[in-house]
Amino acid sequence: MAVSVMVFKRECSGSLHMRLLAGEDGIDREITAAGPSEVGLAITGETFILDEGRVEVLGNTEVTYFLAQPPRRQADIADKIFSNLSPCIIVADGLDVPEVFLDAADRHKMPLFVSTVSIADLVEELQWELRRLLRESTTVHGVLVDVLGVGVLLMGQSGAGKSECALDLIVRGSRFVADDIILVEKVGATTLVGEGNELTRYHMEVRGLGILNIRDLFGLIATTQAKKVELVIRLELWENGKEYDRLGVEQEYFEILGVRLPSLLIPVSPGRNLATIVEVAVRNHLLKQRGINSAADLVERQIRKTSGGLEL
To answer: Is 260 known to be catalytic?
Structure first.
């Protein structure tokens, strides 16, 4: 995953209180690492270790040392720093940027920013902002609910009853996360976190009732802003003649951002209590995580019995 310096500038200039001074021709360079790197000893020109893909940060210590050097040495150090493969450099603490830095940044086409934030706070804020920008994300249509501590994504065609099921779960004590458009972000190799957007947060659409504010109706404890997605339940209107899984031996999966999540297909028909079925599905999911698979155990017992083994 990578993000261009152009996007970084657009998204973070406000929060980092920074502005571009020079090197605009290199605005398409790519940032690939969330952790920024402090220039440190590289400013001496003796030890030159700067990480490709990382935003470099200079503070008062580095700039003060640089300004204490003779002009020829300054030019040599600046040339080395701005000719490396880092995507960009930020001077912290609102310091006056040496003219030789500006010249080197333009010559080597490396974006050079200045920020009014102190170097300690800047490094911390940079880590947060870059983690946000470098996360893989997508949107899915459905309802996300925290059921018994498990993030359950209810999906399915329009009219299948996703919102009604979620509302029933909330009445039973589950927590509402988001309805309709769910923003899913990949955090780490196998973790997905879902949340809604700020405009529709806490709101759910239920046919016949309209738009409901779940927080106002049930209290703050009935909602949560974000939740790890662990189980996908797909609701489908019952089709006569279609074969549905009756044993549950084979685990199905639904893939989002390259992460395979356990999935169930539940047919919807009049009289079925979907909220109860979802709650039981979550309990069964938790049992499987503990190594207890009721369907597989029953099939194994049946095989042993028919083959003449001792049973019961």
So the answer is: no
| Residue in the structure block whose two tokens are 């780490």 | 188
In sequence order, the 6+-apart residues with CB closer than 8 A to the CB of 218 are 170, 171, 176
Model pTM score: 0.64
* Digitized pLDDT (tens) for each residue of the chain, 312 residues in all: 789 999 999 999 999 999 999 999 999 999 998 877 776 656 665 555 566 788 999 999 889 989 999 999 999 989 988 988 889 999 999 999 999 999 999 999 999 999 999 999 999 999 888 888 888 888 999 999 999 999 999 999 888 889 999 999 999 999 999 999 999 988 878 999 999 987 888 999 998 899 999 999 999 999 999 999 999 999 998 877 777 776 666 789 999 999 999 999 998 887 789 999 999 999 999 998 888 877 777 767 777 777 765 544
Can 141 be counted among the known catalytic residues? yes
Of 80, 141, 201, 203, which is the active-site residue? 141
Q: Is 180 a catalytic residue?
A: yes
CATH 3.40.50.300 domain locations along the chain: 136-300
* Rounded (5°) CA angle 200-177-266: 115
Which of 72, 242, 246, 290 is an active site residue?
A: 246
- Is domain 3-134 annotated with CATH 3.20.20.480? no
What CATH architecture does domain 136-300 belong to? 3-Layer(aba) Sandwich (3.40)
Per-residue b/e over 245-268, b at no fewer than 16 CB within 10 Å? Answer: eeebeeeeebebeebebbbbebeb
Query: Is residue 162 among the annotated active site residues?
Result: yes
